[in-house]
Design a protein that fits this description.
homodimer; 514 residues; alpha/beta; Aspartate Aminotransferase, domain 1; Aspartate Aminotransferase, domain 2; 2 domains; 7-stranded mixed sheet; 5-stranded antiparallel sheet; globular; pyridoxal phosphate binding (chains A, B); EC 2.6.1.2 (chains A, B); L-alanine:2-oxoglutarate aminotransferase activity (chains A, B)
Chain lengths: 514, 514
């Protein structure tokens, strides 16, 4: 069930498979005493078994198999597998920002600092980063919280972004992608047993990192449902319902928000954010704001508001009390640099003793990857007007963001022409999460296979069209509703074809099971 | 207690400090209602509080403070802080391998592929890596287990290293440094409550990642003591004692070995490894072999033997049954590329269902950093004879390893000239871990300060000489014995001065407290 490379020794893995489930000692075919495994599925960590992560689940494993089969010349009803399952921009052809990569090359191989083909601003940026690295090398460990100068640049970026709301570099922790920061924060929060076990509120649909981390940490997942009928809005009465019910069986401690939404693509209004903050204050919840799509806002009239900014605009009653962690990343927005695993978190109003524990905890893993830290630095401190790389940087950034905006609109439009598919506007982020009608006969056939109906649907689409989507059940959805998540990342011409193929598949599927 | 950058807003952190320990609601100085924190030291995750990590503990925090004070012009009895606390080679002036950095620059900024100043072998290596990345970009996510072609190269490296013992790329998982792999494996193993709680055997002295991870995961740490009198040898009777005692209160499941040793620098004999494997088989323990220092062997007559190789040489009774995970990294050896957080683990004889769970678990974090994967690829597939970069690569590697060997010897020699310091040979790895005599009066003064005696000693050395070492108590040691860990990484002339300063400090300290 995992990605397979050409095995150098097929015999070995075959042998170990045959031994599964044997009692503690048994004679094998070749006459040797065999032992039961020390570590088995029955005695391994039970919380790990509960972890699920649909974005890289069985459907993606099948997609990888299909790619291999295609490359081995096997005949399929499609020429290529299109992975629209994950927000992996460069894999879909998005080009990296030239300036960022120039600086990374200079940092990797500082001999290039004397190469006249590199622009001066790239060189000065690289020097500044390297001067903050021990021995002028990205190969040195950084401080566990991240390189000082990078955290200072992050703080200044946040201050600019939030119209001057102050930001202390001491509150910035660089991370190995946003996922790392989120899991670290959740780790601090879990505690208790039985009805006092820590509970964490997450949206449904959600990004499955949250459910996976909560399962692994043994915390209680408290679901609040986004309102699909109102463009996936977050309604306070639903938050209230969720927390009231949860208080009967656990200790709700934190509220996680993803804005712009993943997988749902909505962008929260300033008012909504204010209401959420009031709710968190009233219910005494630690706020976690996943803001990795902060540059990915496409819809007219929509604007990104950071939780930090709104919190501080609400005055000291809130800004000096509500505990907040917000997360950002190099992986999304216009950069799409997922592979570098760069990110940061800002923590607000955290108790000083807890913060010391956080600093200690991150020190065990030594430091986030330095190339990712360097990249994060460039994201928060890009070329400025007057610098040689400024114009090209703006051109590249604008081109990427405009293309995404166009593809967001296209996706919504085409999907809404299909009977049995209805798609909210993709206001932001990188995904559409349309609702699909699945005929009763298909629901039954899925049940016979032990599959969720939308998994059955997506698996069939993959086999017939080569399109890899993630079923809504992997993110959570209201009972009886079905969805899939599809990225808007493929190049426009490819996206057009993909959307048409989805359309035709849906029509065929509906016909077949009606 | 954390690394401080210049605060943009000192007032805020001051305010939050004054609010600590207040009851749930209270009027503050400025007349507002204040709330107790949601997340406090008393209600946070208790397992996180138990985590300790001496390598980046209070002494390093003080070292960072001293550096800042020096840079601000404050007078100290020394001109610079020398951090001999951590195996951070580049920070100590070790130069990166040119070929590795050329390939990383090419991968970061592929425009350079048309630059004629880069050697052809660096270009072809970069192309091979980029062709395995989605969209020819290191900015794409890789497979969660790691890039296929890199795992194939790792498998071939292991096969060569182990004299042909087969290695299946399917058993290779690329990781975010070795730490990540070790923690992931430990995560699979923990389970149970009370006397059936999982126990993991670790050496004392140990590398504190192990104790930190076990504390966080809530597993039982089972100590076995290395024999300092016999050059930190691992004696089977001691393993037996430890496991027998542990069976009374927990469920011993795994045995961790660090070879070459950290912090103790010993290199295990082939015989010893064989005995350990027999012991693990007999006691039904999952073996974890931390082999990140596999190229760092200096002493005459010593040689690195991988657990994998010895296991397979012991015949199918062992090679087909004993479960083993071994770990490697880009951070040590001759590369010293810590900042890239590259690494891999190989798993042997793992149950197929558990392996599927492992693959699922690593997928939640998406993938290890791709630049670190690329670097791991170069380490396992360096320039070959006949390639343009081969001679220079060999020259650079040899120079680094010879210098380390020389410094290992120098360190042992100088420290052993000091009365009250006795140092085992540094056979391998990057550290000496000498035993120090601390006068009774100093032990008492430390007790009054609530410090371990060797923490008191190291803190005093730091304040007087600027030398930052880690006290033995951070790694564990026999009661009543005291040590420190010192890296052998500073350049030779600096190391000479450092050793003399340690010597003088020790003499002064001994005199003062006698």
């Amino acid at each position: 069930t995992h990605v397979r490379a050409a095995p150098l020794r097929p015999a070995l893995s075959g042998l170990s498979a045959t031994r599964r489930g044997l009692p503690k000692e048994k004679m094998t075919d070749n006459g040797m005493m065999s032992r039961a495994k020390v570590l088995t599925i029955d005695n391994m960590n039970p919380t790990v078994k509960k972890v699920e992560y649909a974005v890289r689940g069985p459907i993606v494993q099948r997609a990888v198999e299909l790619e291999r089969e295609l490359s081995e010349g096997m005949k399929k009803p499609f020429a290529e597998v299109i992975k629209a399952n994950i927000g992996d921009a460069h894999a879909m052809g998005q080009q990296p920002i030239t300036f960022f990569r120039q600086v990374l090359a200079l940092c990797s191989y500082p001999e290039l600092l004397s190469d006249s083909t590199f622009p001066e601003d790239a060189k000065s940026r690289a020097c500044r980063i390297l001067q903050s690295c021990g021995g002028f090398s990205m190969g040195s460990y950084s401080a566990s919280q991240g390189i000082d100068s990078v955290r200072q640049d992050v703080a200044q970026y946040i201050q600019r972004r939030d119209g001057g709301v102050p930001c202390d570099p001491d509150n910035i922790y660089l991370t190995t992608g946003a996922s790392d920061g989120i899991v670290t924060m959740l780790k601090l929060l879990v505690c208790g047993e039985g009805t006092s076990r820590a509970g964490v509120m997450i949206s449904i649909p959600q990004y499955p990192l949250y459910s996976a981390a909560l399962a692994e940490l043994g915390a209680v997942q408290i679901n609040y449902y986004l309102n699909e009928e109102a463009c996936w809005s977050l309604d306070i009465p639903e938050l209230q319902r969720a927390v009231n019910e949860a208080r009967r069986y656990c200790n709700p401690r934190a509220l996680c928000i993803i804005n712009p939404g993943n997988p749902t693509g909505q962008v929260q209004s300033r008012q909504c954010i204010e209401d959420v903050i009031r709710f968190a204050a009233k219910e005494r919840l630690f706020l976690m704001a996943d803001e990795v799509y902060q540059d990915n806002v496409y819809a007219d009239g929509c604007q990104f508001h950071s939780f930090k900014k709104v919190l501080f605009e609400m005055g000291p009653e809130y800004s000096e009390t509500v505990e907040l962690a917000s997360f950002h990343s190099t992986s999304k927005c216009y950069m799409g640099e997922c592979g570098f695993r760069g990110g940061y978190m800002e923590i607000i109003n955290m108790d000083d003793d807890v913060k010391a524990q956080l600093t200690k905890l991150v020190s065990v893993r030594l430091c986030p990857p330095v190339p990712g830290q360097a990249l994060m630095d460039l994201v928060v401190n890009p070329p400025q007007p007057g610098e040689p790389s400024y114009n090209n940087f703006i051109k590249e950034r604008t081109a990427t963001l405009s293309a995404l905006a166009e593809k967001a609109k296209l996706t919504e439009q085409v999907l809404n022409t299909v009977e049995g598919i209805s798609c909210n506007p993709v206001q932001g982020a990188m995904y559409s999460f349309p609702r699909i009608t699945i005929p009763e006969k298909a629901v039954q056939e899925a049940a016979e296979k032990g599959q969720a109906p939308d998994m059955f649907y997506c698996m069939k689409m993959l086999e017939e069209t080569g399109i890899c989507l993630v079923p809504g059940s992997g993110f959570g959805q209201k009972d009886g509703t079905y969805h899939f998540r599809m990225t808007i990342l493929p190049p426009k011409d490819k996206l057009q074809i993909l959307l048409n193929n989805v359309k035709e598949f849906h029509q065929r599927f509906t016909l077949q099971y009606s």
